[in-house]
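Typical record is below.
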Amino acid sequence: MRNEFSRSQILLGTRSMERLRNSRVAVFGLGGVGSFAAEALVRTGVGHLLLIDNDTVSLTNLNRQILADHSTIGKQKVDVMRERAQRIHPAVDVQTFPLFYLPDTPSDFLNDCDYIIDAIDTVSAKLALVQVAQEKGIPIISSMGTGNKLDPTRFEVADIYQTSVCPLCRVMRRELKKTRNFIFESCVFQRRACTA
């Protein structure tokens, strides 16, 4: 039977599509990375999304954030992304949390999550999120120093302890070693400086 995910099912198979449909993924930050990540999850068939961001869409977001257009300026990003997700896939379950995630933010809402995408900018919040993810046994991928970059072929995914060059990765490694030696297997960063 044809549906909006028929093409994905050909590629991934029925069992994988069922797993995606039952998955709960939390996206922290709905900016240039998080907004595209959230939409990709919806278009892939993930059935449950938690969207965490306290910002509103601004004029300066138009050049890089998929949820930004002139009709959404001034609106809460979590609300805009929820509406967009439900226009793409009406059955998707979306929970919104219009909050700025900080180390002391209660994290009970993550208890049933299968995956976390960290697309936030604040080092203290990133560190807290990595810690919460490890304590709860939730896999996490973090976006590091990928802003203002022009060459996507230079992006890499690696364990935080195998990164180099990226200043944000360096800070994260240092801080993670101070607290505890967290297992932090996935982060996206740019290894070599872009000369363009």
Notes: The longest strand covers residues 24-28.
